[in-house]
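Submission sheet (multi-component)
Chains listed below:
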Amino acid sequence: MSVAIVSIGTELTRGELVNTNAAWLSDRLVELGFEPAEHCSVPDNRRSIIDALSRLAASFHVVLCTGGLGPTTDDLTAACAAELIGRPLVLHEPSVEVIRRKLERAGRTMGDSNVKQAQIPEHAEVLPNSAGIAPGFMIPVGRARIIFMPGVPAEMRAIFEDHVVAIVRPLIEPKTAQRRLCTYGWPESVVGDKLAGIEASMPGITIGYRAHVPEVEVKVHAQGRDLAHAQTLCERATLEVKARLLEVLYGDDDETYPAVVGRVLRTRGLQLAIAESCTGGLLGHLLTTEAGASEFLLADVVCYANSAKTILCGVDEDILRAHGAASSEVAIAMAEGIRRRCGADISLGVTGVAGPTGGTDTKPIGTVFFAVSTTHGTTIDRQFFSGDRQRIQRLASFHGLRLVRERIDPRMRSTASIPDVSLRRDAAAGD
Amino acid sequence: MSVAIVSIGTELTRGELVNTNAAWLSDRLVELGFEPAEHCSVPDNRRSIIDALSRLAASFHVVLCTGGLGPTTDDLTAACAAELIGRPLVLHEPSVEVIRRKLERAGRTMGDSNVKQAQIPEHAEVLPNSAGIAPGFMIPVGRARIIFMPGVPAEMRAIFEDHVVAIVRPLIEPKTAQRRLCTYGWPESVVGDKLAGIEASMPGITIGYRAHVPEVEVKVHAQGRDLAHAQTLCERATLEVKARLLEVLYGDDDETYPAVVGRVLRTRGLQLAIAESCTGGLLGHLLTTEAGASEFLLADVVCYANSAKTILCGVDEDILRAHGAASSEVAIAMAEGIRRRCGADISLGVTGVAGPTGGTDTKPIGTVFFAVSTTHGTTIDRQFFSGDRQRIQRLASFHGLRLVRERIDPRMRSTASIPDVSLRRDAAAGD
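Outcome: structure written.
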């Protein structure tokens, strides 16, 4: 059983859109046990579309095709599909009705361009679209089946889940299993080095990596004789992977590192306050992207100006003058000030030089000072991050969250070092 | 002159990585005047790689190929290229030296796997890699040339700019021109509707769209008889596009909307303070992503807890009790409080219900209250945004920035409405 994916659209071949649809479909196909054989993107051009579809239908059992089912004149996919099987396009009346009702509900009236979206090749099997207007459809071409879906991601996903899964699942006996593990602390290359040799020593296992700097996701994929065998292989390999990544592993599903830190704070009933400068609100943003942040985040003060550090966090002007805004002393004063003002259990102060200007010999761009404060005292840390402004802000935000997590749960303290960073711990200051 | 792009890597066909390389290459090729004919991704499999390369070399003049030049055993591209032209792989000594020096500089020693990266097909033209280890190379296959680059985006881009541009530019006489315009305020479909008919009435013009909700980028592409003709066509179409999008146009390069608002504040010498609740730091993050925010952003207080609204912004507890945290009254108190405390020229207060819980009949999820305050008074606004938590946070942040911009420069006030939003302006409150 082989599958290929065709994406239709000049916006793709011109690079105006990144092809996330093909990646999403492949990811789901792998989960279902398939090994996608090819992705092909062609422009909105009759010849290109027909050539691609007929070539792939001759080589593979199933071809998943997205795009070109829209209302405008450059949407040619349905006409090409009809030409491919030598059938006319016919109006699918039930789809016309569905489209009319959907548009009415949205307060719009149906135009000719919408009716065009209900035209499908004669005898094609219609795949209703629960997330939009244009229905999908399936046609046989030789021994292959070609399944057409709209290019709008939400609509493609709806048709895939509602219909395509049921069509393709019976075509293979599942022989694969997968596990996803999340790490933070090592760059992708180091994670890869740590797992070197596993694939060679465990036949049937492949390991995939996906980096969202500084998080690295590891996917363990097992191909077995049957499903039970694949699952056993996968569990065995996952144990080995976990053992090698213990220091940097933080979860085994889609949870982000900031969400994990939030969860730990919430389950311990701790209230956090943040005073951040060079990270510019990213810390607060990362913690509040997931719902429920109100349970553990009292406040986050982005005190960009020195006056704001003084007014909002109570940082002494003398300290700012004596040590400069990017200093351990100011980080301590920010953390202690915001904790006391808000009555927080734990607080984080972050100040540094995110660049691209403002660096000095002793405090080059990328220098960031951290302070974590509780009633038991304040600990400080200094890091040197490399990269551009966005990268430094992101690495610093994650590092700040890590320091909070380690302070709550010292067992969590890892020896992992951040990508491209020479780690130096400075002295701790008491409360 | 026709070009196709091949991307090699099982991580692509399995959907572990989204193929941003193909989009980047296409975007650059279009800028250079090419019209990419196909993208094809195949797994790390000898047969698949050779089939794809020979098929595309038979149809197109230039094939750009990325990936599979790494140090590990699953990197097969160089061997496949050699097989394709019936030549052995040979060690390219100058590249070995370059690799040795680069690794030494990084404090590493060269291993066998690194040496493998200097093996290229005999007689291939080497394209040195200024951003990494593996060199690129070019081979002739029939009438076509295939150019190989590493899959690491930074290395691919370096080789493309350093060598490939000079190889492909002479192959065509440029006959195309492009302009990029940035909008915020209408959904992509409305932008498309507003521009309907331009392509039909102006032969040679195509219009591309790229949405980063809520920003929509519009690309005007002109194909002419020669370069001067294309440029004239492009300018004429751009004038028409600008006229139709006047209300929502905010720039004509890569500048983001938050960066534009920051620039306006900076050029007017105004200092902004923000008190944000439901947007959770995203406002501060958007404004500080670009450098220079310290010149206009005094402070951003993410006052998630009611106590933080009182302690940090001076919001009266009675107001919170009487109206609830998500209310116009609290937005006003937040904006006025943070402005006075920080001595800001202008301030923004944002509070609302980002979801997924916390909605009520009168304040459903997506209800957000805004207040913009200066010494001349405080204006308020209420919006209902639809979508999930991340979307509501993002739409609310952009709307807050728009209100700040409109307050600074009332000529900027647009009649544009936000996607999926019924706009209602409430009464204004004095200072």
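Remark: The domain at 176-251 of chain B is CATH 3.30.70.2860 (Alpha-Beta Plaits).
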